[in-house]
Each structure stands twice: as C-alpha cells, then as structure tokens.
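Hi all, long-time lurker, first post. I run a small reading group and we've been trying to get comfortable going from sequence to structure in the token notation. Rather than ask abstract questions, I figured I'd post a concrete chain and ask someone more experienced to write out its structure so we can walk through it together at our next meeting. Sequence below, copied exactly:
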Amino acid sequence: MLTMIAGPDDAGRRLDRLLRKALPSLPLSAIHRLLRKRRVLLDGKPAEASARVSEGAIITVSPDTSPPETALAAKPRQSSGTWHPAHVALTLESILWQGNGLLILNKPAGLPTHGKDSLETWTRAFLADKLLPSLSFKSGPLHRLDTPTSGVIVFSTSLEGARYFSALIRERRVRKRYLALLDGRLDKPARWEDALFRDKAAKKTLVVETGVCPDAKLLRAETAVYPLALNADCSLVMVEISTGKTHQIRAQAAFHGYPLLGDQKYGGSARVGGLLLHAYSLEFPTPDGEPLVIKAPPPRAFYQYVSARFGTCPALP
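-- Answer (accepted) --
Happy to help. Here is the structure in token form:
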C-alpha cells in the first residue's frame, strides 16, 4: 500500500493526472485500472479518475496482481542517490541567485544537465528537504546546456516559478549571452540568421539553405557575435542568442567558418578537454518588472586557456 499527501501545487488537479505524475513507472492504463477496481482511495473513499484533489488530501493506492506491488513500492519522486564525481565542485558557491520560485546555478563543464549522474540529480537532492511537499511538481531545469558547456542555468523550485520563466522564454524576454573561443580571426561583429535541421540519428544540428529540405522541420536561429580578443588563428567572442535551439551556437559558428575551437564534432581544431563555451549571463524581468542580470564566472580552466592564447584574459562586460 502506498500513501501520499497532496501539497499546495496539487490542489484542484484531476486525480488520474496527479497519479500519472506521482507514479511515473505506471502507464496511464494501469492507473485507470486501479481506479476502476476501487483500489485508489481519496480521503478514505474510492474515487473517480476525474475527482479533483484538495491540498492536504490523503491518497491511498492498494496494488493488486497487475501491476505488481513492486511497481508501487518505491516512494514517488525520489532522487536516485547516484553521485557524479563533478558534484564535489557543486557547493553553495555554485548558487548564483534564488527567489521567485527559481534557483540559478553555475553549471560545471562536463556535467550533463539531465539524466543519471547529472546536475538535475544533484539539484533535486539539494532541494529535497527545502521545498513544500508536492505530488505534481518536481524541480527541474527550465532550459538546457550541453554537457561540455558551463555557466548559468535556471531550475524551478515552484510551479509558479516554472510557469513564469517558461513564459518569458516563449515571449523571448530572456537575454542569453555566452563566451566562446572560435577557430579563425573574427575581427568585426556578425549576425547570423539561419534555418537549422536537427539530425536526431547523428545527434547533430545542420544549417540548411531555404528550399533545400522542403519537407524537413526547419528551426529558425538568430545569433549575434561580438569579438573580445583576437590573434592570428582564434577569436574570443561574446555570443548572444535570440533563439535557443540544440547546438545552435556550435552549428552556426561552424557553418559561417568559425567552428568552436576544440569542437571536432562540428569541424573545430583539436584541443585536450574539448570546446570552450560558457553561458556567461542571463537577463530577464522579475515578476515586479525589475530587470535581473545574473553573471557566472567562467571556470578556471577557461581563464587559463584564454590567458595562454592571448597573453591576458580581457575584461568581461
């Protein structure tokens, strides 16, 4: 038997949809079967799938031979408890800002955002005893950074915060700027506007000419690039993206003749440690309308490599 208590975020939700989120290992058909067999009690009484749940309601699920009891035995929404070696670098210094249902972190390079042994794993463990109980909400990243990329990333700590920030992204009211080291000498600002195609099989994003793939699902990408430091064979640049597509910066930089140094997947020159791409700052309005600018210091390895290539690390805006 599994007993759960509804939290504030669960109030007003349909029982079947709440169970779907609280018991992700069960298919929806199994949840409806339990409801039909009156094995789901809401405050001690059998409930219909469409029943609305109130805050503090007690939900009891009694398993039968199908699905097996082991499928319901685990406490819902628990962290896997698996730790990645990079977690040792994640201390309170990794927290850049928190408030309004958001937690903003400085992600280390080499740590995945999602999945097993990820930043998401660590963040949920960190927040486990800090959030109000909820069956329908769990903290998660509100955008993504590739595994090799470091820098600013936003997690939700409440349903309201998740909805607010997601709306800002849809409305393009979040300003994202990155630091990147490119192959080649980019000596003046550039603006790249391209159509992208995501090759899921190759896990690679391609820039395509309009009309070349008329049946493909193309994604519009806009990127502005500003040089900060140059030498004969590479450029340190500030990159601002108006859209946020998978591998957008990497694909567009390569297409326009300036692949990220170390990004051999997209034609960049070899570098031990791979590419250098850092999500440097994030700017967005708070609910009261005030602008908030969050900046993440680049990793030490980033500073060291840039200083070695240019003689110094230029001042950052």
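A couple of things your group might point at:
Confidence is low (pLDDT under 50) at residues 65-89.
The radius of gyration is 23 Å.
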